[in-house]
Design brief:
32% of the residues lie in helices and 24% in strands. The structure holds zinc ion (3 copies). One zinc ion binds next to loops.
């Protein structure tokens, strides 16, 4: 399911970062660091899968024997060590690791395995792997951008089709099922999620679709995405069932300008927080500041949410290849919500938009 990529090159790059940080061994299990470096995603089950990356030695994937057929060799970037049901995989990993002074372990590793490894490797200091793996994953290469773009274009086609769907009289859950179905039909390998938040439910940004029947006059926030070759899409458009109330139309004009301003602020060298400030400034100036209750965006790639986070306090300077969402919203409790979300990639000379479906308030029946 993951694309062919230069896994050997990525392993070399992470080893260079290990050397800078005096990390002797890198241990990766469930989570997205493992597929980034090996093309294989561990099953999140009770049997341990772990990639053991020695800074100055071989790379070995320790994997339950019954799951070993799932692993592609990927041009010999790593060896495969299948373990049998009666073996102790923690002891195998500890043995391969030797007695390192410092081990970095993936942030998503189950604590059961980390605690076992800490017992088995009593002289080893454990640190989190993410400072090294995020440093690589935060800048997408051309192949990764191509998959993100394919996923983004697929969601744009879903938005186009939503304009022709009936809304009034259907429940949020019915519309969410339709969105998930179209997400796959338009080219995703899987649908990851679909938020359909109508009327007052729209004021909850991460609303779980309910049996509420959508009514004429509702604003409906639809936020959805899927995965193509492991890479995520994530887009939001806001719909109005019939003509919007004046209060909704006024707020939407502000939101659209805020989203435009934030996208326009993206270029190499500017800070992540300044992109957040560009959106927030427009919304606050119009008097809706208290109704914009979340950060402006999050990075996207093998995970739906990853670095960089577009939030006040993040002084990280944007670099070409960084991919993230720009998704300001306005949420008025008890009344309505609205959000516009696009994925963008920092380009050498500005910004590359991966979503191009119309950002207007979509009027539907
Ligand atoms: Zn969200
Ligand atoms: Zn979203
Ligand atoms: Zn998002």
């Amino acid at each position: 399911m993951f694309p062919n990529a230069d896994y050997s090159g990525r392993l070399d790059a992470v080893r260079a970062l290990m050397a800078e940080r005096d990390v002797d061994v890198l241990l990766l299990s469930v989570g997205s660091d493992l597929p980034y470096l090996s093309g294989y995603e561990a099953m999140p089950l009770e049997r341990l899968t772990m990639l053991v990356v020695l800074r100055d030695g071989p790379v070995t994937m320790v994997i339950p024997r019954l799951e070993a057929p799932r692993v592609q060799a990927r041009g010999g970037a790593f060896a495969i060590y299948p373990w049998d049901e009666t073996e102790d995989p923690v002891a195998i990993v500890a043995d391969l690791a030797g007695s390192p002074a410092m081990a970095a372990i993936g942030d998503h590793t189950w604590s059961r395995f980390l605690l076992g490894l800490q017992d088995a490797m009593a002289g080893t200091r454990f640190v989190t792997a993410s400072p090294m793996t995020s440093a690589l994953r935060i800048r997408k290469d051309a192949g990764e951008v191509a998959w993100l773009r394919a996923a983004g274009e697929a969601t744009d086609r879903v938005v186009d089709r939503l304009d022709d769907e009936p809304f009034a009289g259907r429940t949020e859950r019915e519309v969410a099922r339709r969105v998930a179905q179209m997400t796959v039909e338009e080219g995703h390998d899987v649908a990851a999620f679909a938020i359909v938040a109508s009327g007052p439910n729209g004021a909850s940004p991460h609303h779980e679709p309910t049996g509420r029947v959508i009514e004429p006059g509702d604003a409906v926030v639809i936020d959805f995405g899927g995965r193509v070759k492991g890479y995520h899409s994530d887009t939001t458009r806001t719909f109005s069932v019939g003509e919007p109330a004046q209060r909704v139309a006024e707020a939407y004009a502000v939101l659209r300008e805020a989203q435009r301003a934030a996208v326009a602020a993206v270029r190499p060298g500017v800070s992540a927080e300044s992109v957040d400030a560009a959106a927030r400034g427009v919304i606050a100036a119009a008097g809706y500041g208290e109704y914009f209750v979340h950060r402006t965006g999050h990075g996207i790639g093998l995970e739906g949410h990853e670095e960089p986070y577009i939030v006040a306090g993040n002084t990280l300077a944007l670099e070409p290849g960084m991919a993230f969402s720009i998704e300001p919203g306005i949420y008025v409790p008890g009344e309505f919500g609205m959000r516009i979300e696009d994925i963008v990639v920092v380009a050498a000379d500005g910004v590359d938009r991966l979503n191009r479906s119309p950002r207007r308030l979509h009027i539907v029946d």
